[in-house]
Amino acid sequence: MAENNPDVMNQLAMKLGLSSDLQFYDVYSLDVPDLLADIPRPALALLVIIPLTLAWDRSRKAEDADKKPYTGSGPDEPVIWFKQTIGHACGSIGLLHCVINGPAVDFIKRESDLAVIRSHAIPLGMTRRAEMLYNSEPFELAHKSVEQAGDSAADPTGEREGGHFVSFVKSGGKLWELEGSRMGPLERGSLADDEDVLSPRALDMGIKRIIKLNAEGGREDLLFSCIALARRS
Predict the structure, then answer these.
(1) From CA 46, how far away is CA 227, in angstroms rounded?
(2) pTM assigned to the model
(3) Taking the C-alpha atoms of 179, 94, 26 and 140 in order, what is their torsion angle to the nearest 10 degrees?
(4) Looking at residue 156, what is its pLDDT?
């Protein structure tokens, strides 16, 4: 599993073909303006690793219980979502969700591996899209190149509650929550033109919603890691 570390994810993104005009930044606080000030705005995507606590697990299962298999595909699909079938690749797939959706698309280098993956994914349904990514040698090589990179030898979210990588992107004026182990992409609500994924409303509909679920379940000590994709400063 790739570490949720800006250096690691920047290396992976550039290897796949994202322009160096974008980069990931550590998000040290969701509330303190001074700690958010170093991140250029607008922030285009958030990549978060969160432990799967009992409260969040219950919420996920309840939300997914009545959902039918995802059928989205084609150029009118609001976001491109991948069902994860590759083991230990949730970080790399989380990064993929961040960079092939929303405004980040404009920073994909032409004819790069990322551009090819995106163009091949668009017309495919959920199963064939997952198979395409599973069989993508460039994606596998890029993932393996950073799999052991980073500063920490252990998962910062702890071994008892496995960490899940979740991407939050703004596309089509909506906030989307994207995770390969869910039933499909999750629309969390509308955002105004001047609101990005780090705006108070986006945070309330996104990562803070999960924090609140855990607090209500008696967990005040939720450990998570968050990085933001934005223009290079």
Answers:
(1) 6
(2) 0.92
(3) 160
(4) 41
CB burial of 199-219 (b: ≥16 within 10 Å; e: otherwise) equals beebbbbbbeebbebbeebeb
Q: Which residues participate in catalysis according to the annotation?
A: 90, 164
Round to whole Å and give the CA distance between 73 and 8: 30
pLDDT mean over 112-119: 98
Q: Residue 196 in contact with residue 3, Cβ under 8 Å?
A: no
Q: Are strands 186-190 and 174-178 parallel, antiparallel or unpaired?
A: antiparallel
pLDDT recorded at residue 147 = 76
Report the share of the chain in percent with pLDDT over 90: 79
> Is the pLDDT assigned to residue 217 strictly greater than 90?
no
Instruction: Give the whole-angstrom CA distance, residue 56 versus residue 161.
Output: 11
Comparing CA positions, the residue from 215, 218, 205 lying closest to residue 46 is 205
- Please count the other Cβ atoms lying within 10 Å of the Cβ belonging to residue 194: 8
What is the C-alpha to C-alpha distance for residues 44 and 105, in angstroms, rounded to an integer?
10
pLDDT at 154 over 60: no
Q: Which residue is listed with tokens 């209500």?
A: 216
- Could you identify the residue written with the tokens 């990562």? 207
